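To whoever is covering the structure queue this week,

Two jobs came back overnight. Logging them here so there's a record in the thread.

Job A:
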Amino acid sequence: MLFDMDGTLVDSEKVWSVGLAELAVHHGGTLSDAARHAMVGTNMAESMRILHEDLGRPDLDDAYSVEWLERRVAELFAAGLLWRPGAADLLTAVRAAGIPAALVTATSRHLVEVALETIGAHFFAAVVCGDDLPETKPHPAPYLRAAELIGARPAACVAIEDSPNGIRSALAAGCTVLGVPCEVDLGHLADVTLVDSLEKVDVAYLRGLL
């Protein structure tokens, strides 16, 4: 089983929203709702491009903004993260069933390590982060790598995602995809099974998807 992190397992998209809004203020502006919506599931470089253009400041330095944002988000992550409904129980059930799982996220590893203090690193046989590979979501590389690390064919894996980019990544890798909307609508996407909460999902349900 392959799990996305932000918005899928933990309600950290709201944490990112706080950090991004504060970064916009730091740069003397206000982040629009449309720009924040467009950032969900994107990599850091793309998010900074969207933010800077939204502020009318494409001249801003990406590296500076990333460093500022990640420092603030690390502080917020360390204060504790809230689980998405059903996520903790599903991870526990997958582990109890002896099914290897991987975490597949576009978030940088140093932030993921903070988040795993809440989530529990013991749930995952492998962790693939946004700065581990040259390509990140929506490129298939993260999911291909995660499947390889847990010794599974992508076609034998269910990927659980909350964003269009994450879903595209998993589908391109050849995974079966379960979408659980959080911040953005997923109803327009093809070839994905949708549920409104992981509270409705158990191991038997995941096996049935395959």
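Job B:
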Amino acid sequence: MPKKYIYLIITYIAMQLSGALALPFIKQIENPEMFSVGWSVATFALALIVSIYFLRDEVSDFFQSEQKQIGTIILWSVLGFILVFITQIVAVLIETFVFGIKPGSQNTMDLMNIARQAPIFIIIISVLGPILEELVFRKAIFGSLHKRMNFFFAALLSGVIFAAVHMDFSHLLTYTAIGMVFAFLYVETKRIIVPIIAHMAINTYAVIGQLSIDPEQIEEQLKQLEQLQLIIIGGY
């Protein structure tokens, strides 16, 4: 693995663990929730700036290229969004009706609750997070693995790591499957910008969908899906 990718991964890990540095200050602040959100936005933004610095040669090559293939990028990004959307639905249905896993991601619900209280947090969900995750999990990790093994195993392994980082292990299948689709987009287009755009689009779609519905309605929909799950699995 090139050193710049190692630095990229280290930067991402440092960003994820940086919250520990804020703990001594939180107790002394009147509004710790808003401080935590501000800290997250700042550290994500800083991590992205540092990551782009490490990849500055590749970024420069893209913008200096006379064949950027903007039309192809847009087409594949739209296709990628559709593929991820379908994959997510299929994975959730398998989790729900085959493995009996309760519908609804706690990770997503927690993020949406934060976004409702502090809308600026949406920038992490829709922009900063997707860019960083694609640079780390697809470009650095998947890209390095794919040089040593075939696509399926490289995509599967990097997808599992991607899923584990989200700390929502009951929905490991969904996150892994989505990660594999992003890896497919990267391989097919040879441009990391495509899975980045698709990732940003699916996250933004989820944000709009979640925030446009009252939490009570979401809870009621999940309960109805759980009842349907019991009927199908239980056979009554």
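Note for Job B: The chain has a mean pLDDT of 85.

Please reply-all if you pick these up so we don't duplicate work.
Q.
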